[in-house]
Amino acid sequence: MVHPSLFLYLIVPVLLLRIPLYMVLERRHRAYEIRYREVIWADIGAAILVIPILQGADLIDSWVLIKPAIPASVMALPLACRFLLYLLLADLGHYWVHRLMHAPWLWRIHKWHHYPTYMYWLAGVRASLPQQVLVNAPYILAASLLGFSFVWLAVFISLKNMLQNDWMHLNVPWGNRWLEWIIVTPRYHHVHHSDKPEHYRANMASLLPIWDHLFGTYVDPETLTERPKFGIGERLPLVRLALGV
């Protein structure tokens, strides 16, 4: 579990410093019209609620996950090589966790994330407790490659996933086909949040789009005839959404 002082001194400054940058970017390069004043307080409330959810997910994962043994030959590799391998394996695991959460029997734990009917950097902050437990798992299981303590790993995962999540949901039209072979862009991920059934399981990658290309879930944003609309088409109590039930 992340110690509160580490969260305060390492994560909170990033939370605060990124806000003016995103606001400027979205003001100058807005992809969708949105009335920020009408949604910002609900999203701030969701962000505050997610903090104990993240803490609880870290605690649960530290109890239930067993770190696999890594062959000595792999651990002898330079740290930079092991870090790249870590990102590759963890991101692959994240892709499959995300894909499973869109299966009918696990969809309820992921609904909250798709609940907003708008798109901007804070709209993707929602993560139910079981969702976060599952998303953390591949990062923690692959962490044996690094040899870091769980506390510092939890800080890294929190920062990385937070900034990655902000980027994917940013209300900008950025992205093109060649770049989207390398990294998930905002327009690439926006397709995934579309309220059209044919996009429910599209563009599920979180960092590396190669997984969508390999496993048949890629949809080219340039083939869309109109900009997507968002939401799940139903209203549910906040408690059920946050608990994933």
Summarize it.
The protein has 245 residues and is mostly helical.
What does this entry look like structurally?
It is built from 10 helices and no strands. It has about 240 residues and is an all-alpha fold. The chain has one domain (about 5-245). Helix 4 runs antiparallel to helix 6 (about 130-140). The mean pLDDT is about 90.
Derived structural class: mainly alpha
Regarding quaternary structure, what we see is single chain
Overall morphology: globular
Ends distance: 24 Å
The number of domains is 1
What portion of residues is helical? 55-70%
Output the number of helix runs: 10
Outline the low-pLDDT stretches: none
Largest sheet: none
Rounded mean pLDDT is 90
The fraction of residues assigned to DSSP E strands is under 5%
Order of helices and strands: HHHHHHHHHH
C-alpha-based Rg, rounded: 18 Å
Total beta strands = 0
